[in-house]
Amino acid sequence: MTLGQALSIVFAAAVAAVLTFFIVRLLDRLRCKDAESEAREIVRKAEQEVEARRREAELEIKEAAIHQKAEGERELRRVREELHERERLLDKRQDALEEQAEQLRKQERIVESTQRKLTERIQDTNRRKEELSKLLDLQRQTLHELSGLSHEEAVQRLLSLLDKQLQQETGAVILRHEKHIAETCEQKARETLLTSLQRFAAAHTAETTTSTVGIPNDEMKGRIIGREGRNIRAFEKATGVDVIIDDTPGVVVVSAFDTIRREVARMALDKLIADGRIHPARIEEIVAGTQGELEHYIQKMGEEACQEVEVHGLHNRLRNLLGRLHFRTSYSQNVLRHCVEVAFIAGMLAEEMDLDGALARRCGLLHDIGKAADHETEGGHPKIGGDLLKRYGERPEVIHAAVAHHDDHRVQNPYTVLVAAADACSASRPGARRETLERYVKRMEELESIAGSFPGVEQAFAIQAGREMRVIVSAKDTTDEIAAKVCHDIVRAFEQRLTYPGEIKVTVLRETRYVEMAT
């Protein structure tokens, strides 16, 4: 390489270095200018954003101020309305107070006038009293002068005359009060009985002397009879009943006056039919098992009766006898239900008379206990019942109620009278004896139909076994006077068309209702 070439290279390198330096300086200046313009742009944008936010804040402040102003105006209006309402109420109260003050002033004037008149009348009365005293003194002196009697003689004669008159009047007053007391006692007794009967609602049932047993087909009749009748004879011998097999399809009739035997026979026959094995040995086995079940059932019935009337501490034998009364009837009335009725009625009568209701219920429940053993012992059921109760340690009141409830003995305590009254009520109430449920229902329907046939009657209800009628009449179609006439006409119709024991109380109700809705 030559020197010229080397110098050229050095010169070129120096020129290149100088150019590079100037280019770098130029680029630095350009960058500074770009950064300044960018900074100015950022500042400008920031100022714009700040201005926008400032405006938004001012708008929000203005809106909040407007909202608060509206709220303040609404609160102010509400306060003004409350103040106006209170002012109105105060005005009304002030008017009412002024009116009351005016009324008080009028009352004061009336009282003053009345007091003035009373004072004048008192003065006039005192003046007349003094005049009468003077006249009486004058008349007394005149009578003494005319009769020629002294004061003591006149008093004695007057007292003797008054004594005779008072004796006659006293006798008349005593007779009148005795009659009134008798009527009052009868009325009170009747009200007590009616109240007790109305508090007790009894079922109306009737018992029969036969039971029917359903059979699946007529072929079963032949199996019940057995070869040459050996099955039916064994059954009748084991149960002591009569089995009636006739042409009636689907049933076999068991007949006996002893209801316990009849029930044993019915239950045993049901089991034999269900089992299908009918022969003398099986019959004896089933009948023996059924008798044991029935004894358990009898004991359960006695316990349930004691629980029903809340009689506790009864001897086990007495509970068994009570259960046997479930299968005993008297004039078609179940004796156990009759005893329960008597217990309830006697207890309620005792409570009405402030006596021991629990003791009265015990007397009523056990009063016919002798009927459960009268076929085993000689004598009437009152005597048998008294002996049984004495044997098992019952109280004297309970024993005497059983012995004397038919008025065969002298009454020694009030519980006997209550039991006798309850016994008569239970035996004589409608539906208790000699009447089937169908006749009872028919009579109730007849009573309601007669009452409902009168004009203006909306509904009629026969209650208390027909002893009372409740009739509801229309308030629009009737007045109080017409309702009274309807009640009288219904009573006359019952008396003319029906035959019934005792009395029927008819109550006619008329009601007017006004209903409005406040909105």
Q: What would your notes on this structure say?
A:
This protein has helices at residues 3-147, 151-199, 219-225, 230-239, 259-275, 280-308, 316-325, 335-352, 357-366, 381-391, 396-404, 414-428, 437-452, 480-497, and strands at 210-214, 242-244, 251-255, 329-330, 333-334, 457-463, 468-473, 505-510. With 519 residues, the protein is mainly α. Among the domains are: 207-308, K Homology domain, type 1 (Ribosomal Protein S8, Chain: A, domain 1, 2-Layer Sandwich); 437-510, Alpha-Beta Plaits (2-Layer Sandwich), CATH 3.30.70. α8 runs antiparallel to α9. The model is unreliable at 431-436 (pLDDT under 50).
Mean pLDDT: 80
Let me know the largest β-sheet: 3 strands, antiparallel
Taken from the alpha-carbon principal axes, the silhouette is flat
Percent in strands: 5-15%
Task: Provide a count of the helices.
Answer: 14
**What structural class do the secondary elements suggest?**
mainly alpha
- Determine and state the CATH class of the domain at 207-308: Alpha Beta
CATH architecture descriptor text of the domain at 207-308: 2-Layer Sandwich
Pick out the low-confidence regions: 431-436
Fourth CATH level, the homologous superfamily of the domain at 207-308: K Homology domain, type 1
Output the keywords.
519 residues, mainly alpha, Ribosomal Protein S8, Chain: A, domain 1, Alpha-Beta Plaits, three-stranded mixed sheet, 14 helices, flat
Question: How would you summarize the topology of this molecule?
Answer:
Blueprint: H1 3-147, H2 151-199, E1 210-214, H3 219-225, H4 230-239, E2 242-244, E3 251-255, H5 259-275, H6 280-308, H7 316-325, E4 329-330, E5 333-334, H8 335-352, H9 357-366, H10 381-391, H11 396-404, H12 414-428, H13 437-452, E6 457-463, E7 468-473, H14 480-497, E8 505-510
Parallel strand pairs: 7-8
Antiparallel strand pairs: 1-3, 2-3, 4-5, 6-7
Helix pairs in contact: 2-8, 4-6, 5-6, 6-7, 8-9, 8-12, 9-11, 9-12, 10-11, 11-12
